[in-house]
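User: Please predict structures.

Assistant: First:
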Amino acid sequence: MSGTFRIGISDDFYTEASEPLQYVLAKKLAGVAGVEWEKLETGGGRCASAELLRGYDAVFALATKIDAESLREVERLAVVARWGVGYDRIDVPALTRAGVALTITPAAVRRPVAEAILTLIFALSKNLLQQDRVARAGGWRGDLPRMGTSIGGRTLGSVGCGNIGQELFREARSLGFGRFLACDPNVSQEKVRELGVEMVDMETLFRESDFVTVNTLLNERTRGLVREAHFRLMKPSAYFINTARGPVVEHEGLVRALRENWIAGAGIDVYPVEPPPADDPLFRMDNVIVAPHALAWTNELMTDNGSEACDAVLAVCRGEVPEGLVNPEVLNVEAFQTKLARRRG
């Protein structure tokens, strides 16, 4: 192993996940010879500068942005380890050109996000918020605006059927749903046959599902993927749930669908801009449950994210190819291979 391996930790960890961060650092990195870490001060702008990145072999990223300008004349950096699975704030082609690997933590995220989706399904179908408000106001069940809905025999649909989508169906198998539908151009019917999932087109999924969930990454292909036309296809008794990324959904179309009661309601954990503006119409609607992009955030999620990210970074520190690699093309980039060889010493 050649020289000190320096890790920069994006400063948003220290305000949003300080406790699990410290636990993971102590458990996974403390005592590892030749490894040092420190806070990466982005100055609150959440975009890492090239001047900052030049001094590190690895970066732990939460919501920090890294673009092509961030990587200008950055030669030492070998890996960016994202705690989570979304990487829409990171310019992956720019990383690859610079010989930098990008890793994510799919194993850590899979179950917590699936549990978050199921939480919203139950809360929406049982009118949980309305039940709470009526009881707090001194009312009783006759004051409820409507009856709840059983999920038995209902159809659960997922836009996207990768890591999280498949886990959602896996966990939901014993809950009594009548059908599972999914739309994903990258997943074959054969791959999900054992889960009982039917692969269909977007229009069929929105038309026939009682619960539509979004489980896809945000990229140029998926930005604005769910549009007003899709909400018009939904049953008036159906619910829409998004725990993936806000820009995947045309926000104005969602607002109109809820305001005009095209659908029964929605559970929203993500927004076009985060944090969202205080005047977002969703916050004034009784048929929406909202959360601050934290519904899946548990101590277990963050520590598992951290452990998985640390394992990836330590693999690079040893001169090995890390797990959770987003850009396998980097393996053919001479600069990256040189960095690994240097670590093998």
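Second:
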Amino acid sequence: MNRTALRFALYLSIIALGIAAPFIVPGIRTQLSFLWIMIVFALTWDILGGQMGYNSFGNVLFFGVGMYACVLIQQHSGLSYFPALFVGIAAGGLVAVAFAALLGWGILGLRGHYFAIGTLGLGIAAAEFASGWDLIGAGSGLVTPLYPGAVGGRETFFYFPCFILAIVTFLSLRRLYRGRFRLAINAIRDDEDKAEAMGLHTTLYKTVAWCIAAFFLGLAGPLVGNLIGFIDPRDVAFASSSYGVWMLLMAILGGKGTLWGPVIGAVVFHITQELFWTYLLGWQRVALGLLVMLIVIFFPTGIVGWVRERWPERFGQRVDEQAQRTADQ
């Protein structure tokens, strides 16, 4: 079986398993929904952090903006539940892109640690602003519209949009990374000054990359908000200390700068985290901190990078056996 057939079989297996999962294990539908959202988190963070070399801690801003935009439309549009939900999800993505475009031309002029600190400030500032805005519940939070279906139906219903969003995000980035876009943002990562000198409009590409990440996060926000049923500005919408950091950790764990790395990292991280919360209650944050240390120490290039170093020939890399033996000695 050639690689194309294997890849097709892998994609088909993932889709089949994803469709069947909520019926096979209905008791963990919410956790499965969050697994797909975590994959979206990791993939969108890697657009800037892995492919472009800009470590952003502020992507959670777009997640929260999309979440609030959707719920406001659901509450004030006068539409019934499902039309208002779908209009709100679309609006969440568009509003997030608008924020990314407006902020991008300014903050993407920063580089290195300055950019990371600046984006961290965005998430914190957004949480404080939302905590003081009465229209969206301020610090008391906001209850989403009640799902009109049967008890337990909400978890099943929102599982599938989360699953579809993760698949669409993956396939969209896979297509983008096959063209000029990936070459351009990789050039920015390798040497931005040289890329500019060669005529590449770096600010434009950086802004477009951020807008792409914002769009998918703006779609994810409404799904999570309605799945949970309650939006807290600090702990859900603009949760910089959790979602904002997890995005980075998942991409690094799997292997940033790759397509499958963030996916693998998200799956491993989410499963490990759920096990910590189940069996180490009270010590789960300590265990999570130790996990972060292990990621940095033992997997500096991520799981995919480690596998590539161990078995380079499986990734189409030719290895000089004599040189390899010398290096091993």
